[in-house]
Design goal:
single chain; 77 residues; 25% strand; elongated
């Protein structure tokens, strides 16, 4: 059974036999290229940072480029 850590009440039966418990990380990469007219590269970056912080630029599923699944290792293992 999988317990979704974001939505505590969500449980999905995946495996009939249970063994150890593992913390599996799912990481998605979203990316969007913006063309900004600015006097310098630093100014362009600052402009986009402001747009992002103001939630004018919001990445979504259309900006998906990659995903990675890995195990979170513990110092106790």
């Amino acid at each position: 059974m999988v317990k979704n850590t974001r939505y505590v009440n969500s449980e999905f039966p995946l495996v009939k036999e249970m063994g150890a418990t593992y913390r599996v990380i799912v990481r998605e990469t979203l990316q969007r290229v913006l063309e900004i007219e600015a006097p310098s590269a630093e100014s362009a970056v600052e402009t986009v940072k402001g747009l992002y912080q103001q939630e004018i630029v919001v990445l979504d599923y259309a900006d998906f480029v990659d995903f990675e699944i890995s195990i979170q290792h513990s110092l106790n293992n």
